[in-house]
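User: tokens in, sequence out, please.
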């Protein structure tokens, strides 16, 4: 938000107030004009003025020989920061089933909560979901805030946002984590905006700054060319959505003791329903399976032609796995984008990842290197993918793959 007068511009981005001002020292010499990349300075009546399109970048400050341009930055801190305590995980459910990303968030949330010496809680909205609340405790939640109401059976961003905002305002968690799923991406920005706090979307790393006790939220930026670590020091809660399959799931302990389920009654009037769910359409099997699959067989440019993906499909089918692909094959139009693994595709963490004819560039590795077992088939022994391989086969995939398929079919009786 930029508000300009004839000689100042300022912005309040929630974290800091930045102001740029041209003082009386200005002589109208015009030296500042070429320094502005946006053409936002004009000299009128021998005095420089800042125009509406100033972005407060500060490039002009050093250009003035009379030091007439002043840039000031003041931190804006919300009141009562210290009242916010605890780590919350939004427990996304679909058709009453907790989504696996939630268990990954509980795994990471546990570590963050232990570092901060606070409780880890899950917040669960839906209908007839008592059993699921208990499951969250078995996966490490100290508390589950459970809102069980027929109007919350299916996800709707406005009603879920209303309920979540009310809960946060009452219980004041310092951190809220949610999956970067279609539901998380639609709900969490709404909640953050309503709470007037910051949100980092699509995180791939989370940690605690040990000195300041704040959340370090890391995500790829500029098309994945750099990793940016983002903080929200002056507002609460600190909110992040997290990519699926980047973090390890919290272990399940059926006999875990000590968790507490807090049932919250909501006034049905606080759950507006402006839309009606007519039918739930399941996602197509193949595209879903990639993130959920325990086994993935991926093909790269080494396949040579689109029709050769049938070898990848055959091995995947034999093993009950899903088909992945490198970006080179997707860009070539050999296979749809939904199959792409990597920095600009899906992040996967299967038990077994089989990479065939993939060289292993860093952007591909970013999406699969945390797989438990990585099997590589490549004819070039120097291919970088061998650096992350658990088992490597140096050979022509057109010889190796049919042999593997034959053997697996024999062993598995398929
Ligand atoms: C910003 C950015 C984001 C990107 N995001 C992604 C991403 O999300 N995912 C991704 O995959 N890439 C991504 N890339 C592209 C990445 O850098 C590589 O170009 C791409 O992964 C290469 O795909 P490939 O390994 O299939 O092809 P190549 O690099 O061409 O490798 C083909 C491999 O096949 C082997 N081979 C050839 N013939 C045979 C054979 N008969 N038998 C066995 N092996 C054989 C070769 O030895 C070679 O190692 C991104 C790039 C940029 C700049």
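Assistant: Sequence out:
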């Amino acid at each position: 938000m930029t508000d300009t007068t004839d000689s100042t511009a300022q912005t309040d981005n929630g974290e800091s107030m930045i102001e740029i001002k041209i003082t009386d020292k200005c002589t109208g010499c015009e030296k500042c004009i070429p320094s502005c990349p946006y053409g936002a300075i004009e000299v009128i009546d021998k005095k420089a003025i800042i125009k509406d399109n100033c972005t407060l970048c500060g490039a002009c400050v050093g250009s003035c020989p009379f030091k007439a341009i002043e840039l000031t930055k003041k931190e804006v801190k919300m009141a009562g920061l210290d009242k916010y305590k605890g780590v919350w995980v939004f427990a996304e459910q679909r058709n009453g089933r907790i989504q696996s990303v939630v268990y990954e968030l509980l795994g990471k949330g546990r570590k963050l909560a232990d570092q901060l010496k606070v409780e880890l809680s899950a917040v669960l909205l839906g209908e007839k979901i008592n059993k699921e609340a208990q499951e969250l405790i078995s996966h490490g939640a100290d508390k589950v805030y459970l809102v069980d109401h027929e109007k919350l059976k299916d996800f709707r961003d406005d009603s879920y946002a209303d309920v979540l905002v009310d809960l946060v305002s009452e219980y004041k968690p310092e951190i809220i984590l949610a999956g970067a799923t279609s539901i998380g991406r639609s709900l969490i920005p709404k909640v953050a905006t309503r709470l007037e706090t910051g949100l980092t979307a699509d995180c791939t790393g989370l940690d605690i700054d040990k000195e300041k006790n704040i959340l370090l939220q890391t995500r790829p930026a500029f098309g994945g060319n750099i990793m940016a670590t983002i903080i929200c020091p002056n507002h609460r809660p600190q909110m992040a959505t997290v990519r699926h399959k980047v973090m390890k799931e919290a272990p399940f302990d059926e006999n875990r003791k000590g968790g507490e389920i807090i049932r919250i009654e909501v006034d049905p009037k606080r759950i507006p329903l402006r839309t009606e769910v007519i039918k739930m359409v399941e996602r197509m099997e193949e595209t879903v399976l990639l993130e959920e699959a325990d086994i993935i067989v991926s093909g790269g440019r080494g396949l040579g032609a689109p029709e050769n993906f049938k070898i990848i499909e055959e091995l995947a089918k034999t093993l009950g796995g899903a088909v992945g692909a490198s970006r080179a094959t997707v860009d070539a139009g050999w296979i749809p984008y939904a199959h792409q693994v990597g920095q600009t595709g899906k992040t996967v963490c299967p038990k077994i990842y089989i990479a065939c004819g993939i060289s292993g560039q860093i952007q591909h590795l970013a999406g699969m290197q945390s797989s438990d077992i990585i099997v590589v088939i490549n004819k070039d022994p120097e291919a970088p993918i061998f650096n992350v391989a658990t088992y490597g086969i140096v050979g022509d995939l057109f010889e190796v793959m049919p042999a593997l398929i034959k053997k697996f079919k024999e062993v598995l009786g398929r």
